[in-house]
Every structure is written in C-alpha cells, then in structure tokens.
Amino acid sequence: MAVAALLRRGALSSSCRHDVYIRCVLSYYDLHPLVNSANLKFWRGNHNSGKFDFTDMTHPHLWYPNAREKKRNVFLHVGPTNSGKTHNALKRLEASSSGVYCGPLRLLAREVAERLNKANVPCNLTTGQEREEIEGAKHSSVTVEMADVTTEYQCAVIDEIQMVGCRTRGCSFTRALLGLCSDELHVCGDPAVVPIIQRLLEATDDVVTIQYYERLSPLVPLKSTLGPFSNIKAGDCMVTFSRREIYKLKRKIEMAGNHLCSVVYGSLPPETRTKQATMFNDEASDLNVLVASDAIGMGLNLNISRIIFSTLKKFDGICTRELTVPEIKQIAGRAGRYGSKFPVGEVTCLDAEDLPLLHSSLKSPSPIIERAGLFPTFDLLSVYSRLHGTDFLHPILERFLDKAKLSPDYFIADCEDMLKVAAIVDELPLALRDKYIFCQSPVDVRDDISTQGLTQFAENYAKKGIVRLKEIFTPGTLRVPTTHNQLQELESVHKVLELYVWLSYRFDDSFPDRELAASQKSICSMLIEEYLERSGWQQQGQRRVLRTPRKMRREYDALQLRGYFREIDARSK
C-alpha cells in the first residue's frame, strides 16, 4: 500500500520500523497535505531526487521561504557591554516605516516598546505572557520566541545574538536570524559570534556588514578585594548565585553599615525586578546598594559604580563550575554605565583567590561561538509522528533527535525539560499539537509547585476542554511571606499564574480566566515586594520603613480577590 494512503488512513503502526519509515521518505505529492506549498517550493530546489528525509536538518534556512525571497542587508553590531551597539540599531528601527525588535527578555522587550512609543513611533508589545496593541502600530517589540517570520518588515533588530549558542534557547535566535523577513536586519551582540553568523548567512545570500564598537566608559579591575563589609558604598552591587546567599549577603551588608539593599535574581517576578532596580537607581531612595545574581547581566539599566563578585563559581543546574569568560565580562560590564552618575566602572571580588581569574577574564576575548542551536519545527515532528502511527510525543522526540542530521554549524537544542513535560502529557488524551504547546510552555520543571500547576492545567484541559482558574484556586490565603521558604513558595505561585496566562494566549477560550490570573499575579508581586521592604534593617538592627509608591498601593487596593493553590493551602493546615 502507498505511504500516502497509509498516512490518510492513519494506518501506520508504531511497530513499522522499516528503514523507509524511520527515514521519513515521501514523494512531493504525498507531502502536499502536510507541508505548506511555500516551503515545498524551496525544498524542491534542494532535494532533486524527489524524495525527502525529514530528519535531514542540514538546510534550516529553507524553512523560511518568505525571508529567502529577499536579499536582506544584515548589519552586525558587535562589541562589549555598554558600547552603544544596541542603541544605534534601535535608532535605525525608530526611523523605519515598519519593524520589529527581538530581545531575550520581557524586560528588554517592554523597555524598547516604551522607548518607541515615547518617540511617537507606535509600537506593540508581544511576549509569551503579554499583549499590548497600539492603534496604527507598524512596529512590534517581542521576546525572540515570539518573532513573526511571516510578516514583512523594513527593519528588524535581534539583540544579544551571542545567545544563538545557548544550549536551551539558541534555537529561537537561529530561527529569528534565518527567518525574519526584513529589508534590513540589525544583529547586536558579542564579537565572538561573528564567524558563526557569517557562515550561517552564506547560505541565505544576504549582504553582511560588520560594525565593531568599543566600550563607551572605562571599566577598571581593582587590585585589591573589598575587605570588610564596612567598605561597601552607595552604588555597589554584590553578585552571588543563589537566592539564599543573596539574602544572607543583603542582611550582612545592612547590619554592617548605613546601607539598605535592593535585590535582583531570576526567580523574582519581572515586575518586582524592575521595581527593585528602579529603587536602586533612584537617588532619593534609601536602597543604595544592590545584591544580585547574574540576572543583572542583561535587561535592566542599572547605575552601578562597582561590581563585587562574592564568588566566581555557580551551580548551572548540572554541576558547580567556574564562571566563563563571557559570563564574567557580561556581569562586570554592568558597572559604570555610560551617561550615569558613575562614569568609571570598577570590579573586584570578596576572595583574593578569585582576583587572577577576574583580571585574566576581563583581558581575554570571549571564546568563538562555533555552532548555533537548532530544533525541529512542529510540522516536521507532526509528519514524523504520522509515519510512525503514534501521537506519543516523548518517543517521537527521542527517535527524531536520535536520527537527526545536522551540518557542523548547528547543534540540537537541549530538550531535557521538554521531554519531562512530554512524559506527563503523553499520559493524557491530547492531540499532538496540544502536547507540543504544553511542552513549549515556560514551566520550571525543577519547581514542584510549577510542575504541579502544569499537570493540573493539562489534566483539566484534557477532561473538559476548559480550564477555570478558580477550580484550583482558593480566595483569601495569600499573605506576605515571613520566612525564606514562604517567599520561595510565593515565587512558585507566581510562576504558575504566569503559566496560566501563557496558556490562555495559545488555547484561546479554553483558558478564560486570564484577567483573574493576571490580577493574582500582580498581588503576588506586591506581596513579594512587601517582604523585601520589611527585610530592610538599620545599622542598629531596627526595621526601616521604606516609602512604598502610591501607585503600588492603589493597584493593591484595586485587587480585592486574593487566592492560593488548594494543595498548598491544605499542606499549610
């Protein structure tokens, strides 16, 4: 029986492991219902035999036919932190008739949207959890995963392009680089990315121009360590790499002198990070020292005079290791921001043993990025699953990635977290596309509460086709944390609420309580901020009352409904 007939009837068994099926070889006519005609047109040019091997990912630029119809002018803006490269790219974006900014963080996307709107260039904001549409806007500011590769633009900007080499998110930057359909493409990042970008764009026939930048303000590595904590001064930023260590150092600094600390780290809600940074930058604020993780490396404008590394080692989810040269340079480069009240940045350590690595790293160029991340599209996985006669995503992913063929310039993105979610949703009666969406969601699989939230959402969706937040949410129990564990739990609740909002944009009417989730999310942020406020201490150990913005209080009063997850509530009783 013909493969096409088997596909139409869904008759291929998972036990069919003949080479023709494992290699996914089809004729053009068999492919027609499964792959759009635009892609087919370009694939014909590279598969002259009339057969396809769907695990062949050696020509990913052909996945984006709209971009391939253009001869794009690509401008690489490369240089160190605080060199003006992104600023110049954004000036071109402002001057364009239509355009898009693609950044690595929601904070950056929002910052650019606000900048363009302030410059009277109407600009939409699109992130995984946010949609803000401005009337008449022909510009958009998005997180890189949300980049639209079907719309034509006059100008596009990709920020922090060195993340093309990131083992988890690199595939999203590759997709934007190869797929954005724009006359001008401005790509900003570290010089270490230049060789790989040049190689990837050889296949696209784009015109590439490189502009190198130098740092706009000096960065001075100090020859001595901080010494006693009484040497902390206004404008300092202490960097460490765990939540517990951040609060330990915050308390130690506040007990040692006349300084109060803002804190910034990755699991804080983005809104809270922004407000903590704003208070640190405000000269009238009591919070004149920052304690932070490497989350400050990008996405926040901070008036830092001196970076102080408490350690040059971090746990990266797998093992404890030394910071890389790019990581040290990215963090240290946040000191002495051009145009701030600290025209010269300084950087040092707590431990004298770390000084040699710090100094050598700042003098060294970042290692060249050799390969870019890549991941199969849903269309490829869908065809592959039908060939194997199964809707189980976990085995399809494993088989496909095991058979995938790549050019030397690419690597398959790490999908360990995706496989963990796939194992959960494969237990449910869901369509393959629905499973894929759940696997793409921003769930923190290392967080039990976050994983529990995703499981409950997926189960309710599979059973009823609709997920009401109130079914797993009990009003009246959200409280200001009083312990570190309660703070961590509230941060996890915030993640689950963000997950609901994210899913509500992908499943339309099936997640109808987006506004409720957003309001609860705001309350979580405010309660976390209240905890941070209460943890401020004067030198004598007395709590100092900080000024809470009136806007925050008005928002808090407006959000009367308060809730918590039932299982957490039951656990606390």
From TrEMBL:
One of its GO terms (cellular component) is nucleus. It catalyses: ATP + H2O = ADP + phosphate + H(+). Its EC number is 3.6.4.13. GO terms for biological process: megagametogenesis; mitochondrial RNA 3'-end processing; pollen development; positive regulation of auxin mediated signaling pathway; positive regulation of cytokinin-activated signaling pathway; positive regulation of gibberellic acid mediated signaling pathway; positive regulation of response to salt stress; positive regulation of response to water deprivation. It comes from the Eukaryota. Transmembrane segments: none annotated. This is RNA helicase. It comes from Triticum urartu (Red wild einkorn).
